Amino acid sequence: MGMPMLDRGSEAAPLYAQVARLLAAQIAGGVYGAGDLLPSEPGLAKELGVSRATIVKAFDTLHREGLIQRQQGRGTFVAPRPKRHSLSELTSFTSVTRSDDAIPSHRLISYQVIGLGDERDELVASFPESVEVVLLGRIRFVDDVAVGFHRTALPADLVARAGLSEAVVAATDFSLYQALESIGQRPWSAEESLRAVPCPAAMAEHLAVPEGAPLMQVRRLSRNRSGELIEVVDAHYVGSLYEYHTELSSHLRNEKEGPAHEVNVDDRGSHVRAVVAERLRRGSGRG
């Protein structure tokens, strides 16, 4: 496949930047689709008449932008388009991925039982000290591309009731929410918070991104129909591969005055609680 000529003039952009932009344009234009294998570094270097180091630097640029994924021993591929998760829907990673006609999977990294007297980190400490907890560490994949890392804490008695042994959880097609639903404990409500964080060194290798790359951290506390806490998950997603989506409306009844009040909105069966945190000032002190 032919590539446009590079501009080698004295005022031209660096060659690696030109290569990166050429490839980005071809990806955007559909020459290379999601999951397609890109030409090899030596092949591109020969075709464009540049050094392999230039191609490596161009690929580094595209990787930071989330446009490509490197798979050791296989090559460099166009990254899948970001998966979208609605903030008003309490759904699982598996459901979100399958709804987008993609294949979800995971790899179990750790399966740890936290006893009553064991030391607890912030995640496990969400449960009372009287509750034994099972802590799962999992890499989440979409079409075999790593997009997230989940640390999930669950009450040990719930894990036992659902028969979630380490061997069961290790199955690549395992779905936690399906397992909980099978014993009538599917999450009914949840609190969720998001923030941007740099990728820790321990997570970088699992997610195939550089240390310090931007990740989206999602903390979710899920409760069953009775209001009991049944799951706490600390999820980190590659920012370029996973996005959150919500629909906003100004049609809320906010005539009440006060330092804060709550409004419940029922939209297609999904309950969203909006907290109005500022006093409404309508013509205060004006005639």
From TrEMBL:
The record, for InterPro entries, names:
Bact_HTH_transcr_reg, Chorismate_lyase_/UTRA_dom_sf, Tscrpt_reg_HTH_GntR, UTRA, WH-like_DNA-bd_sf, WH_DNA-bd_sf
What PROSITE patterns has UniProt attached to this entry? HTH_GNTR
Keywords from UniProt, A to Z, are: DNA-binding, Transcription, Transcription regulation
The UniProt record lists the HTH gntR-type domain at: 13-81
Q: Which Pfam families match?
A: GntR, UTRA
Q: Which GO terms describe its biological process?
A: negative regulation of DNA-templated transcription
GO molecular-function term, one example from the UniProt record: DNA-binding transcription factor activity
Q: What is this protein called?
A: GntR family transcriptional regulator
Q: Which organism is it from?
A: Amycolatopsis taiwanensis
